[in-house]
Write a structure and sequence with these properties.
InterPro entries: ArlJ-like (IPR056569). The protein has 565 residues and is mainly α. It is built from 24 helices and no strands. Helix 12 runs antiparallel to helix 13. The longest helix is centred in the middle third of the chain and has 48 residues. The radius of gyration is 31 Å and the shape is flat. The model has no long low-confidence stretch (mean pLDDT 79).
Amino acid sequence: MIQFILVLFIVILETVILVININDVKVSSFYEFLHNPNKLGIYLGYILSVILLPFVSVASLNVIKSIRDIYRSLAVKSLRFNSIEVAIKYMNILITMLPLALLLMVTGIIFRLYIFTLFSLVPLIFLGYIIVKPFADVYEHSKNIENELKWFLILMIVTESVRANIGFLIDKLKRTPILSAITKELIVVNRDYLLYLPSYIDSFIHRARHTPNSRLSSIFTGYASRLRSGGDIVSWLRSKLGEELTISEFSAKLYSERISNIFGQIMLALYALLPLVAISTYALNITAVILLNTVATPLLVFIMYTIRPKSLDVFPMKHLFITLTVMVLSSLLLYAFIGSTSLAIGWVLALILSHKYRSILKEISILEKDCIEIMKLMVELRRNGYDVAKAIEYIISTNTINETTKRKLRLALTMLHQGVSLTETSMKIPTHSFLFKFTLFTLGLVHECGGGDPEVFQVVYEYMNRISTLQNTIKKISTLFDIFALVNTVLIVWIWKTLMPLHASLSYMGIGSVFGVDINMLYLLIYSSLLGYTMVSSTLRIGLPITEFRSIAFLAIGTLLPLLL
């Protein structure tokens, strides 16, 4: 594998040397080769090296076997067992791509289309993707496990509290995988128990050696030892859940500090200070500031999305991509005709298309609030002798929860009366809220095990409330920055209005003025700053660059202020 990468590097180095010295070896036509055999030799030697070296090295160094071995060794950790066939398919594409890409590159050099020389990087980039992919799969699986771990521990506490065994929970999660990453791990544990190992204890210990997440490995090992020794499993699980929540709280605090100290200052500089400096002095060019905001916003959104604690709620990413594409394309296409107004039109179109997302966010917010209330009521209703089904019927009849939640609970009860378990209804009822699915699944576990002790619901309620508070804290971080963004818009317009008389007097005297910012550029600066800020702020709050309904206020203020002040 290293030899193959070295061969590709040599080929790229040859290309760079040839491009640097292109004036000495360039040809105007193929007929020139007949009169200059030296150039013919240089190009023939280069063509042979760029085509034959990578191709022969793939065959002789057995690169496909090396790639396959990497994928096989890491598939045990990522649990993506179809990735080996994918790797072989990618390698076959790479072999086919090499001659084509390199021939296009050589043709570009001969005809002085130097952009074609970039094709030499395509095979190397493709190979890099093939090599990195299994490692990325392992990392992604580990991060998904971390996001699901606290919810898995709650389910284990419920399972042990109602005297059910781990096999019961594994069976339910196999049928209803609300925790997809951990369900994959448990399926492997169950498979090893059924086929290879004598007990779940040995199966958990064996899987603990291979799982990519150290915290899950610790839980598997500790759980197996408690099963073997016969200790108090529930108390141990509650202590582990407490540790996980402490880690989550620390991560949220660290995230908040990063946002406040680092990204808050970056956002303040990009969307507030730089526009102010550009509008009030000649130290910065306004066009450069607008371009900087345009380039920096997607990068900031990506970084925010990467470091933000992930939610398990489900969002249709395809619709988000369409919304952002429409906003960008409409702004670019209309700019030549209507100037800065095109950005406002693109913003409005994005707001219209984002209606679906705003409905999803509203539903998630309602369901999260009501799920905690449902668990709280379950504690009292179980103490009064209600079973889970009767308790749900009673909750529906009260006015303590939203009508949206009532409709979904009625559907769950209908399915339950038709013979579908509550655990399975959690995936059959259409909703984007993970917490609602989790609540139904938990109620189903307790219901199928005889109703459970009221203290089980008390424990679940306490932990759900704690996790919800933690997530809401993250969403409130951007409030201070919202105020900064609006105040900054007022300052930009006020400074522009103040400098307009100065610009007029200088223009009257025939002196060029750097303060001559027309209304079109002012609006473009305001819109680009506010829109960039709202995209980053939405990613900070909810994890995705959605044009929220509150951005209407930003758009309206940015549009009306230059007219009113």
